[in-house]
Amino acid sequence: MDDFASPEASDTERGIHNKFTAAQSDILGQIRGELESSRSTAMKDLTPEMASYMQYIYSYLSGSDVGIIISSAIDRDSAEYAAWTAGELSLRDFLYYGIANSWIDTTKLNIESRYSDADDVFGALTDYLFEKLPENRAFSKKIYENLINGGVITGKELCLALYDQNILAYDENEVRMLRDNGPAYAFNFMVNKISNVEITPAQLALDPCMASCVVTDVNTGQVLALVSYPGYDTNRISDPEYLSRLNADLSYPLRNNATQTKKAPGSTFKPITAIAALEEGVVGLDELITCTGQYEEVALPIKCWIYPGHHGPLNVVGGLGNSCNYFMSEVAHRMSTDEQGNYVPSKGLETIGKYAAMFGLDHTSGIEISESEPEITKDDPERSSIGQGTNSFTNVQLSRYIAAVANRGTVFELSLISQVTDSRGGLVKGYTPRVSSRLDFADSTWNAVQEGMRQVIATGSAKNIFDGLEVDVAGKTGTAEEVKTRGNHAFFVSFAPYQNPEIAVTVNIPYGYSSGNAATVAKSVYRFYYGYTTLDDIISQGALSASNDLIQD
């Protein structure tokens, strides 16, 4: 945006900027007219564009940085608030209501008299707005968004600006083709650049645009790779302008997604539930639990992913291999039932929490950099058993847990550092991951859980993804919904080779839609690690297509 307004701007950039400045002047005039009119328009009767500007103003004034609207003081039971949320009130009328009811902080406005009437306060408020809005970058982006959506600023212009601003290396033929063709060409141009990763997910900041992958040696606890996407140039981090841009970046490059992004683990938690059920004796190895498609022994029934279908009778291997919510809910319910047959949810939660803690999910992973604290569930044993409840873990914490499943019970305090040397290469200090605990479970328990995870890959929902992979993998997919307006989080935890585990690979793609996408990334990691592909081959392939396999978990 700054380059558009620069004296060195290209003709294309100047054209974009001129459209923006003309629109900005017109929009500010329309907003002023609405705010100053005694017959202002109710929100629902505004054009979608004008309603978006009014809603932005309300959010801006109530944001923590500005705080002129004191949100906590608004009476949400009032008729006026109900009318506002229903779109039946104008912003002007709602702000006047706020002035009368003291949820407008007048101390932040330039008002000379403490006894000013409502009109004076409202006048000071509009003066404040029209001083701040023209320089507000988020408001400017809102204008650009509407200009692009309305076709005033074209896709062709934006694509040409990518070359003018050196986002793309100059290509005379591509520039000529963009100039000579219409919007369809610009659209296909963008699709091609994204497919070839010449324009990255981080640059788009559209879901999904972040991810992480952790590779751990299951026999030593050494972290072999810990990757967070997107990243940043550490050599430039001391540049204030660069740091400011990183802080404003909607793809959050400063967040280490492997160590700081905590999410509900979804079905990747189910191996712990299976282990707890077997070790606590609430289900036998060959005992069958019949999935009817919906678990109804709780106040709010839990649907299995197969509903309105059903899995029928399953043992623990099949319950895990089919990721059956009914099976896991039933064993959690049994863990929540005391010897007298009374249902005691706290008993089940305590048991689930005990086994999660055994796998180290009650504390950080041990790596030598900052990490978010994990959270073991404290609510709803049945839903907690399928990775919901209040379970929340980072990718590196899931890696430590799944490495312990792979090695059959050794829980490490993971380490990123191999050794510290002096400037001549002499050893100053060596690092060996510490064993946190050893889990003494029955061999039959380990066998069943590992076999169930192998079934996920060999015959279950992830079979199509891993067909043809040269190494046998055992794994568990998982999806978790956080908000209904964005995609589900995509998880995959795994280890290989299945017969003699060496490494664990865990992938987390926030808002990645399907765990199939996380599994697809993991497959590429295994092929690279075991030498079945090269880094050059991976890079030359461009972006992977989204998984078309419907992973139900």
Task: Provide key terms for this protein.
single chain; 553 residues; alpha+beta; Beta-Lactamase; 4 domains; 5-stranded antiparallel sheet; globular
Largest sheet: 5 strands, antiparallel
Strand content: 5-15%
Radius of gyration over all CA atoms, rounded? 28 Å
Morphology: globular
CATH topology of the largest domain: Beta-Lactamase
Quantity of strands, as a count? 13
How would you state the average pLDDT, rounded? 94
Brief summary:
The protein is of the alpha+beta class and 553 residues long. It has helices spanning 11-36, 48-62, 79-85, 91-100, 118-132, 137-149, 155-164, 172-180, 183-195, 201-204, 240-248, 270-279, 316-321, 325-335, 345-358, 381-384, 395-406, 443-458, 463-466, 515-529, 535-540; strands at residues 211-217, 223-229, 289-291, 294-295, 302-303, 312-314, 410-413, 419-421, 427-430, 434-438, 474-480, 489-496, 503-509.
Q: How would you explain this protein's 3D organization?
A:
The chain is an alpha+beta fold. The chain has four domains: 11-142, no CATH class; 154-199, no CATH class; 211-261 and 441-540, Beta-Lactamase (2-Layer Sandwich), CATH 3.30.450; 266-394 and 413-430, DD-peptidase/beta-lactamase superfamily (Beta-lactamase, 3-Layer(aba) Sandwich). Helices cover 41% and strands 11% of the residues. It contains 21 helices and 13 strands. β1 and β2 form a beta hairpin. α12 (270-279) runs antiparallel to α18 (443-458). The radius of gyration is 28 Å and the shape is globular. The chain starts with 10 loop residues before the first helix and ends in a 13-residue tail after the last helix. The mean pLDDT is 94.
